[in-house]
User: Fold this.
Amino acid sequence: MQLQHLRQERRVVRGPRSGRRGLHLVHDREPDGRGPHHRRALHARAPLHAQRSVQVRVTGVARGPALGVLEIATIARGVVVADAALKRAPAVLLSSRAVSAGKHLVLLEGGVAEVEEAMAAGARTAGDLLLDRVTLPAADDQVWPMLGAPVAPPDWAGDHGAEAVAILETRTVCAAIAAADAACKAADVTVRDVRFAVDLAGKAYFTLTGTLDAIEASADAARHAAADRLVGAELIAQPAPELRGRLFR
Assistant:
């Protein structure tokens, strides 16, 4: 059986014995190098309750590593695109949602081959209603939390490493994700504010903080990744005290 989702859940009834005190270890039969029926631990644990079923969260599979995003011009077609993508390959649907300007976002994660195949099927289904797409075979760790945008960071006024700030604005959500991934891989920076399409006429933006040298390098990488989808990229070497720690109030 192939495990597809970090947050996959299953119901497990307590057995007569436990692998360790107070826990019930869940296993599954999954082919591996030791034979097709070797019992491999999935490390899914839950407290024991006599004669009672409990919800267990499977944590034996790492996230990703690939991320794919499709941006469609209409909500109706967007739902159909999500359906086509999921039927084509065993990728995991992170989100299928409507955003401002009547657009629809489909976000997928999984193995590289699975995500690429699902993305290709989704793009074919979208046809001329496909506004943008991005596939990241190994998305940066800071990109994943961005997918829950809007993100309003805690006050970073006391972060001495936040010397400079960059504000990147793009025409599409896909462009913002691609730009942020490139920026984070180019230099040691921190993603702060993130907003995708909602109340922005379909646009997106994110902010970065870091040393001036790091911000300049990451902003250059972001500009290159966004290309003609970039609306603006601005840098502030030393934010005013009233803006430092929180740019949007």
The longest helix spans residues 112-126. The mean pLDDT is 81.
